[in-house]
Amino acid sequence: MNTTIFAHRGASKIAPENTMPAFKLAKSVGAEGLETDVQLTKDNVPVLIHDETLNRTTNGNGYIKNHTYEQLQRLDAGAWFAEKFQGTSILSLDQFLTWSKKFPLLLNIELKTNIIEYEHIESIVLEHIQRHSLQSRTIISSFNPSTIKRFSKLTSEVETALLLSQRIRDPLSYVKNSGAKALHAKYSLLTRRLVEDCRKENMPLRIYTVNRPPRIMRCYKLGCDAIFTDVPHSAIEYQQLFDHRYGNR
Ligand code: G3P
Ligand code: MG
To answer: Which one of 67, 109, 148, 206 is at 20 to 30 Å from 171 when CA atoms are compared?
Structure first.
């Protein structure tokens, strides 16, 4: 089977994460999917930023939830990464969906509610997905099982996935109890047994964040459904190598 390659925060090794240049580069190298992180502004606009604060990836500081969208639009989200990306702005979810729906891309929108439980983030994000008619190619994920529970209650049109970073006794029950249909697990949790268990239950298993070639190849060999990678160009190269060596299984 083919492992789907999702660009993690876009092609985030070669462009500033979660920005238009990172998503455009991911698409141009042939990533099939884009992963991104959503937080809410003070005026409830979903924006694409990994951290709860602006400090690391913009020239602003403080919590996103304490800024209006209009305030965020004045910030630079590219210069911290490299001078040539100066002038890159923070993307709203709406801008991201408007652009990505023009291409046959899969989307994984991660709701960042593991630190701040943004009220109504589930219905706000769902409304955006529906407005752009992207239900069938979007996956909603979160580390927070309550978020997934709430989202799953709103709709069955959009696939949900629970993120897992720590070893627990029964990961599949943890996923099912949240109402999620898929498991997005940290690479360190990947075992052949986990792959087999998920397959038996028809539960898609997607692995993050896989950047090193031996790890990428291991995911392909084990038949993981997808990987999230900062280096989609390299993952695609290794997929071609894998297909050539083992045939497309
Ligand atoms: O969705 C996979 C991965 O993005 C989860 O971790 O911290 O990179 O958002 P993080
Ligand atoms: Mg993420």
So the answer is: 109
